Amino acid sequence: QLTDKQKYPLNAVTQRPMAMYHSWDSQNAWLRQIHAHNYLYINARTARQQGIADGDWVWVESMWGKAVTPAASVRDAVADADIVVTATWAREPFLFAGMLRPGTHVTTLGADEPGKCEVDAALIRSSVAIVDDRALALKEGMIAGAGLGPDAIAADLAEIVRGEHPGRVKAEEVTIFGAVGLPMLDLVVCWGLYQSARQANTQFSVVDFLG
Fold this sequence. Notes:
Elements: H1 23-26, H2 29-34, H3 44-49, E1 61-62, E2 65-66, H4 74-78, E3 83-86, E4 105-108, H5 121-125, E5 128-131, H6 134-139, H7 142-145, E6 155-156, H8 157-161, E7 175-178, H9 183-200
Parallel strand pairs: 3-4, 4-7, 5-6, 5-7
Antiparallel strand pairs: 1-2
């Protein structure tokens, strides 16, 4: 589907600071203090025509919708959400029981080392809590960050995939997936993509990066 160039005449080109191009660098606390914001630079004449002043906040919108919808608070941001994904450096919870509507799914990625926490203990206890690895979750992941024990874990991801745990059994249940981050899961996803590519493209060539 072609873009309506009359309605969307401008192109947004990435212009992040060099230090923020890699996702790992963007999570470096020291670099984030230096590059607190990724600014959108607009030609001065275009900005004047649109009534945009230096330092203003603007919408980035395409035919697919608005890139970001600002909210006054976390509660406002998640109130109508079906899926909530958090990936922050937080060391205090900011998602609490009562903020989410029934049936919401939360994926929390920020708690990947000791002391980090995004989700409140009460919310985890009232939800179907799934982790990627039980031992890591209890040592440095979502469960450890909330100060909870093994009884707070409903299942791990492998148990869900193997059908050993049903996951959500009622439509109104809130589910939470707390990921510390396992390289083997990346390999599983890559293997699936590799197999799909081979099946979809008869010209698919194999590159042996280890050879």
